[in-house]
């Protein structure tokens, strides 16, 4: 299954992420779900993750873990593990990400193309394409 969405603002990108995590796009997001986000800098990956967090019932602040690599958000229906591999050039296998991917929550990985060995056929793959300052093409593959 592949669906293409066009969002015209950060708010619409957040809303799309929320719909995904609530199951409104025909994909069940549950304990153990892995969502792999790919796309250029500024493509909307973190905004989309904010929406996923909202859909899981998390109401706190969500920001990119570019410098810390991982943020864990709790307080919703499931924990959300937000991983950002932007600063990782190699050695992904040494980070121990499997414990999150196989954990009790939902794992979202930005810059996922750097860790393809972690994914299986259950991974939701999402590509973000920059159309203009506000508009994004978001391709969801399951």
List keywords for this structure.
142 residues; alpha/beta; seven-stranded mixed sheet; 3 helices; 19% helix
Distance between the amino and carboxyl termini: 5 Å
What's the tally of helices? Answer: 3
Q: Regions with pLDDT < 50 over 5+ consecutive residues?
A: none
Percent of residues in β-strands: 25-35%
The helical percent reads: 10-25%
Oligomer description: single chain
From N to C, what is the helix and strand string? EHEHEEHEEE
The backbone outline, from C-alpha atoms, is: globular
> Main beta sheet: strand number and arrangement?
7 strands, mixed
Using DSSP, what is the number of strands? 7
Order of strands in the sheet with most strands: 1-7-6-2-5-4-3
Question: Secondary-structure blueprint of this entry?
Answer:
Elements (H helix, E strand, L loop, with lengths): L1 E6 L2 H12 L12 E6 L5 H11 L14 E4 L6 E5 L13 H4 L4 E5 L13 E7 L5 E6 L1
Parallel strand pairs: 2-5, 2-6, 4-5
Antiparallel strand pairs: 1-7, 3-4, 6-7
Helix pairs in contact: 1-2
